[in-house]
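U., I forgot to send this yesterday:
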Amino acid sequence: MGRRIAVIVTIAAVITLAVGVVALSAQASQAAKSDRVRKHLAAVSIAHELDTRSSELKVDALKAAAGDNPAQYKNDVADDTATATALLSKLRATVPDATDKADVTKLKGVFATYETTINGYIDTAVADPTSARSNVAAVQKANDAVDEALDREFASLQADADRASKQLDALQSSSRTTVVLAILVGLALLGGISFLISRSLVRPLRQAIDAVERLADGDLSLRLTETASGCTGDLQKAYNRAANQIHEVVSSVTGSADAVAAAAEELSANSQQIAAGAEETSVQ
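Result:
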């Protein structure tokens, strides 16, 4: 019985371990997918900040053309340019895919051209404000080029984020299904094996109970087949030994009773002979 219980405990431990491994594997996959979603969404946010910097550079250029002191906007342009450069580096470090990194590298080139155009425009505004005011279209054209590049980047990053989010949802659903199936299969296996083991224990016990009941009714002929092991096997052996001993005692008592009966019959016969002899003597 101890071995059977050990088997059940071992199987339960193995099933628990298997379910745990499946759950941990699913959790690791979900964590990886979740990290991709987070990175894509962070990249979208950075791209929005870049769009803001692009607009501010445009505003700096237009203010320089309209103002009395265009040179004062050089510092603003330098600050916005430094911020844009830092954001582009951050964006490239954030996106998880090589394709996205290549797109960011292209975007850097577009921004570099845009920044060169803005700086050149402000230099023109400092040297010849009238000429700068007549060439505002150049700033707008450069800004449009950046906007188009950013729009493409927005679309790409958002598509990646949506795709990663859908993959995460699908993975979570699949993981839940896998874990539930693993638990159900494990419980089914455990239940089936427990049933078989329980049956192997209950059947010999039921046979032993039936044998004891028949023994109590006076049937000394039944013997149990000693097939079980452990405590159940010991019970079968003990019953057979007890039944054999009772059978021997009953046989001995029966034999003694037969001997007593035979002696009594012989004594009765002798008594009858003596009585007959005495009667014959009396008649003579």
